[in-house]
Amino acid sequence: MSQADRDKWNARYLAGAYEARTHPSALLTHWAGRLQVLGPAPRAVDLACGSGRNALFLARRGWQVDAVDISPVALARLRGAADAEGLPVKCVERDLEPASSALDGFSERCYNLALSIRYTDIPLVAALPRILAPGGYLIAEIHLITDKTVAGPRNPRFRVAPGELRRAGSALELLHYREGLVTDPDGRTVAVAQLVGRLSNTSTG
After folding, report:
1. Cα(130)–Cα(138) distance, rounded to whole angstroms?
2. Total Cβ atoms within 10 A of residue 36
3. What is the band of 19 on the pLDDT scale with cuts at 50, 70, 90?
4. Between β-strands 189-198 and 173-183, what pairing exists: parallel, antiparallel or unpaired?
5. Residues 126/103, Cβ–Cβ less than 8 Å
6. Which of 26, 50, 52, 18 is nearest to 190 (CA)?
7. What is each CA distance from 146 to 6, 88, 142, 192, in whole angstroms?
8. Nearest partner of 73 among 48, 45, 43, 93, judged by Cα
9. Which pLDDT tens digit goes with each residue over 109-126?
10. pLDDT tens per residue across span 34-45
């Protein structure tokens, strides 16, 4: 992203964008209790976390969370919320574009969960298995191209074509895949592609 993109997102958050969207992703809440993770303090990374609704949800459940976003304003909002509750959330300001270098500096094979919710970057999703620990999970949800009247981005550049997310997760054992309309907890109808996948316990590549 450019500095103009960073400025755009900062302006949105300064204007109060997404303040009412404190509920975590329904996909995440459905799967969080099903993830088979060993150890008392599993690690997660929440990419393009915004003001951190999903990072906070995971931290409240005992996860150590690295929350990554381009907007320092959004991260400051998240940091304040996490500090107020004493939650283990580390905020990381980072531009996730281009995907070829977005994960530079992240320790490989260290995360039990990588989370990418409503952020459209298929090459980044395809690269995420390399930072997953053996047996680690990827949960991704991206706006889907549709001819229906739905909430979300109007520019098709920020939506994926049918089958595109499935192909991006082909290195993982597929636990869940869905494309279609869903209703968010706030009542908005959205068109999304959803993927939950798991890295092999013996994977080292």
Report:
1. 11
2. 8
3. low
4. antiparallel
5. no
6. 26
7. 28, 38, 12, 9
8. 93
9. 899 999 999 999 999 999
10. 999 877 789 999
pTM of the predicted protein model: 0.90
Q: What amino acid is encoded at 149 in this protein?
A: T
* Residue the block writes with tokens 């590549």: 205
DSSP code string of the chain: --HHHHHHHHHHHHTTTTTT--SPPHHHHHHHTT----SSS-EEEEET-TT-HHHHHHHHTT-EEEEEES-HHHHHHHHHHHHHHT--EEEEE----SHHHHTTTSPTT-EEEEEEES---HHHHHHGGGGEEEEEEEEEEEEB--SS--SS-SSGGGSB-TTHHHHHTTTSEEEEEEEEEEE-TTS-EEEEEEEEEE--TT---
Residue 58 tokens read as 């995971």
